[in-house]
Amino acid sequence: MTMRRRIAVVLATTLAGAALSGVPAQAVPGVPSPVFDPNAVSWLSLRDQTSAQFATSFTANSKNGYLIDDLDIDTTGGDYRVGSVWQYNTDGRAWKELRDLDDAGFAAAWSEAAGQGMRLTEQETYLVGGVRRWAGVWVKNVEGLSWTSFRGLTSAEFSTRFDEQRRAGRMPIDIDVYDTSQGLRYSVVWVQNAENLAWVLWRDLTSAEFSTKFAELQREYRMLAFESLRISAGQRYAGIWVENRNGRGWAERRDMTATMFGNYWHRYSDEGYRLVAYNKYDTAGGVRYAGIWRQNNDRPDWKLKNAVDARVQTELDSTAVPGISVAVFHNNQPKYLRGFGFADIGDNVWMDSEHVGGLASVSKAVAGVLTMRMVEQGLVDLDDESRDLVPAMPAHHTHTVGDLLANRGCIGDYGDIDTSGFDNLPYATALAAADEFWDEPLVCNPPDYYYTTLGYTLLGADLEAAAGDNVKNLVRTKLTNAYGLGTLAPADMSAAVRRMTMYTDGNAEVALENKDWKTLGGGIQSNVYDLGRFGAKLAAGQILTQTSRDTMWTAPDADSGYAYGWSTGTENGHPVVAKDGSWTGTLAYLRIYPEDGIVVAVMMNDRSGTQSTTQLGRDIGAIVLNSLP
């Protein structure tokens, strides 16, 4: 196969490892640590990609300034698959990756790279059609570190090289163990110790032996590399541990199914860790995965983490809701992201902050922000009369844009108007949906307060007329895309998103339904992370001006407390704005303390029991508020 060359930017290397013995030494891989093990860095990982998929991802990731941190190529079950972990470039050094090389091709690439002043950080071996192939990752040796590598070593040869290189002040930063017709062989990369940290290496461990070593080392060391190989004697494991001098958190999981690997990937990402090493391997029980994670921000150290964990766990245990997702922001920074329970019970998928669900009536708060954005842009005014904007609207609609947004347009709600035929119909505009029921009489006299979802459909028609665009595009262009909110957008049940399954009445699944007719009243979807980011950006003044926020969060009358899409109030003298949402299979809540920069977002995938996103959100908000000086 033709040798493929890639030059890009550099970041750290993490190992897939096996080792010789429990002999302590003095070295650290990935030197220098500030470059290759930063406290925080952008990262991504991919797994089970075909060769073509990996090539496409490689081009995109390299162009965006990422470097391969860990590479895993396997042909488990005869299928060629690539797993990779990437970190962002921090110092701009050149690097390259080559794969699918035969022995001679790899040797030539090795010599050429060395001549270019590059050092090998990873070499990977695998079989394609029964023929051994090699891949490698090289980085520019900016620091001038001494290094070397070997392939095809027997166990005895590995032991000899181990002692030789340790005495020379080098340590292994990558190792691969593989089976051949002549027995086990080892490949290994060594680099000069630059920071004098103790490290420990073990190989050929049974599962029980690995667990014992892990327990012995985890307090003072962090795990840097992992490898597992199935041989005739059973499963064997290897690992590299390095002194965790700066005390940053880490985690390691092994022998996971694909589903469980995904669960932990998202769990650790929520909790503030990045993946640094990845392995896929055969076992007697089937294909399994392993991963090593490293603390990547301050979320693991947030002082309120345990208190919030306990409150959410109590909600989960006491209400039997399938899943809960929570996001807490303070001063526009995510302090807490976490899922509890299940996003999908049948498929054993844990809930996390990236699972998308319906916002139900929290959509009305989004409608408030959208309307005020259009007011700022001079497209509409709260005092504009609906019939001036939409002349086709029947004459009894004497409300204004502001009346509709504040639930003072006197439009009937579900109990007043039959909406049973509206679901799953593809309404291209809010105007088309409003035409379905606007002949119905008003239920009061505007601007009397009357809570209704249907009034927001008429609001959508007003905004469409003012902007000359349909309401879904208005949400996407003026909020979703304008502020990088990703999943916070008009609900699209056909979109390929990580959607939480909705449940009701004893964990019975709820069928997905298209809610085109009520986009602004209950048809927005999001994950809890983007919902929290929406609130945080709003509180930080990044979406609306202070004047617009003051208007939006001021109720037209003090009796209802309901302003323009939001409920308003105070807590211990601190202003609070919030909105709750409830629909079959969905509960959502967004709570903001504008003067304190606190935002709490909660979502659940069932509303049939006693669970309450509103009470849970209030309790979490109180925990954060009471912690402030």
How would you describe what is shown here?
The protein is α+β, with helices and mostly antiparallel strands. The chain has 17 helices and 29 strands. A 7-stranded antiparallel sheet has the order 20-19-18-29-28-27-26, with helices on both faces. A hairpin with a 4-residue loop joins strand 28 and strand 29 (598-604). Helix 8 packs across helix 13. Mean pLDDT is 92; it is low at 1-29. Residues 308-615 form the Beta-lactamase-related domain. Residues 1-27 form the signal peptide. It comes from Catellatospora methionotrophica. It holds the Pfam family Beta-lactamase.
Give me the secondary-structure topology:
Blueprint: E1 7-9, E2 25-26, H1 33-36, E3 43-49, H2 51-63, E4 66-74, E5 81-88, E6 94-101, H3 103-115, E7 118-128, E8 131-140, E9 147-153, H4 155-167, E10 170-180, E11 183-192, E12 198-205, H5 207-217, E13 221-231, E14 234-243, E15 250-256, H6 258-271, E16 273-283, E17 286-295, H7 305-319, E18 323-330, E19 333-344, E20 349-350, E21 356-358, H8 363-376, H9 386-389, H10 401-405, H11 430-434, H12 454-467, H13 471-480, E22 489-490, E23 503-504, E24 508-509, H14 519-522, E25 524-527, H15 528-539, H16 546-552, E26 567-571, E27 574-583, E28 586-593, E29 598-604, H17 613-625
Antiparallel strand pairs: 1-6, 2-12, 3-5, 4-5, 6-8, 7-8, 9-11, 10-11, 12-14, 13-14, 15-17, 16-17, 18-19, 18-29, 19-20, 21-25, 22-25, 23-24, 26-27, 27-28, 28-29
Helix pairs in contact: 7-17, 8-13
